[in-house]
Amino acid sequence: MDITSQLEEKINNKTKPLGSLGILEKLALQIGTIQNSTEPKLIDPTILVFAADHGITEEGVSAFPKEVTHQMVLNFLHGGAAINVFAQQNNIALKIIDAGVDHDFDSNDLIDCKVARGTKNMLHSAAMTKEEVKLSLEKGKMVIDDHVSPQCTIIGFGEMGIGNTSSASLIISSLCKIDIEICTGKGTGLTEDQLTLKINTLKKAIEKHPDTTDVMDVLQKFGGLEIVQICGAMLQAYEKKMLIMVDGFIASSAFLAAYKINPKIIDNAVFCHKSAEPGHIHLLNYFKATPLLDLGMRLGEGTGGAVAYPIIKSAVEFLNKMASFADANVSTGDA
């Protein structure tokens, strides 16, 4: 009997009607299959938050100024952000990575993977060079290898970067062939007029870089340093058989790129929540994915993964600890 059949038998023989734990049963099956075990474990849960600046902010696509990126990195390091609170609440290790912030930090708690001091303005040139894309993918993989516990079985990814919803919108629009108007939302809280400006700006970026559909080309023209590093880290997490907690809109754009590079990564993905960014539902539909939560969140930082983690843990707990009909001397429905 293969591992899938063993897990299905174990799940179906718990003291409950068939399928009555819904998505938790699907999660238990998925996690057990990834770990090739009927007794899977969530060990050393970790969330990695990658931060970088974006040249497109010069065009007024964000309600917040560029310097908020490095200010929020400092907030992460000082423990004051939402992701700090939720990670601590759920005993999740949290690591912060400088993928390309336009600031010089002095902290031993920050993982330095700076490739550049932000991307270039994509209205004037590609956001990144081919070499920066390649190096960013490599650095993302390196973070998994060098800064995550070798025993880790579940990992999430967050981001910080003023302007990065613009990058994510362009990535999703290009790779899923969805109109940019549909993929673009208010990000950090734009007014209607500011949203119109943002959409028109992203249309100009597409006009500057037409027919961009190859994943590496898309990342070079429209990507963010943090998004590409997340993509590389996700690919390496898959190679290490980790369950991947996919956060909201921006982290999902990184996952989309990773999927285009290695479609098998979808087997390890849990889409933790539906972002309030309008483009996210189209990406979820693209993957035919049902998110665990819909709380109207659109913060990023990996917060959706941290909040969803207890649900994932519940799937493993029932599989490992709930009695079977035989154990509990309970009659089955066909007895």
Can you tell me about this structure?
This protein is of the alpha/beta class and 335 residues long. It has two domains: 3-40 and 319-328, Orthogonal Bundle (5,6-Dimethylbenzimidazole Phosphoribosyltransferase, Chain: A, domain 1), CATH 1.10.1610.10; 46-310, Nicotinate-nucleotide-dimethylbenzimidazole phosphoribosyltransferase (CobT), large domain (Rossmann fold, 3-Layer(aba) Sandwich), CATH 3.40.50. The chain is 48% helix and 10% strand. It is built from 14 helices and six strands. The protein has helices spanning 3-12, 23-35, 68-77, 82-89, 130-147, 164-176, 180-183, 192-208, 215-222, 225-239, 249-261, 278-286, 303-321, 325-328, and strands at 46-52, 93-100, 110-112, 154-160, 243-246, 269-271. It has a six-stranded parallel beta sheet, sandwiched between helices. Helix 6 packs across helix 11 (249-261). The radius of gyration is 20 Å and the shape is globular. The chain starts with a helix and ends in a 7-residue tail after the last helix.
Q: What topology, given as strand order, has the largest sheet?
A: 3-2-1-4-5-6
H/E order of the elements? HHEHHEEHEHHHHHEHEHHH
Q: Give the CATH topology of the largest domain.
A: Rossmann fold
**Count of strand segments:** 6
Overall geometric form: globular
CATH class of the largest domain: Alpha Beta
Largest sheet: 6 strands, parallel
Integer tally of domains:
2
Helicity, as a percent range: 40-55%
- CATH hierarchy: architecture of the largest domain: 3-Layer(aba) Sandwich
The proportion of residues in beta strands is 5-15%
Q: Please compute the radius of gyration using only Cα atoms.
A: 20 Å
Alpha carbon gap, first and last residue? 24 Å
